[in-house]
Write a structure and sequence with these properties.
Layout: H1 5-14, H2 24-42, H3 73-76, E1 83-84, E2 87-88
Antiparallel strand pairs: 1-2
Helix pairs in contact: 1-2
């Protein structure tokens, strides 16, 4: 895939970047180089390779899922304008 001058101008307009007429060819060459590199990446055989979440091998730290705070719903809703059974009440917005 190659980018022509009209596409460079359109990309500039969509990105709200002013591209002078003398710069179009430079951007065109740069975009074509980038797209060529992306096409090369598409040719790489990655079958059998696990997806990575980081370049460094790591294990997520895990902690026990337990309640560490709470047990006082009255204090939580104390400043609310409307409450019912320790729940916040809000005006109806969907009819």
């Amino acid at each position: 895939m190659s980018v022509d001058a009209a596409t460079v101008k359109r990309i500039g307009r969509l990105a709200r970047i002013r591209i002078e007429e003398g710069e179009v060819e430079t951007y065109q060459n740069e975009l074509n180089t980038i797209l060529g590199f992306v096409e090369q990446l598409g040719e790489v055989d990655v079958s059998g390779i696990e997806p990575m979440t980081s370049v460094m091998p790591m294990q997520l730290r895990r902690r026990e899922d337990k309640v560490t705070d709470g047990g006082y719903p009255e204090k939580i809703v104390a400043n609310a304008p409307l409450t019912e059974d320790n729940f916040f009440m809000v005006p109806k917005v969907v009819e």
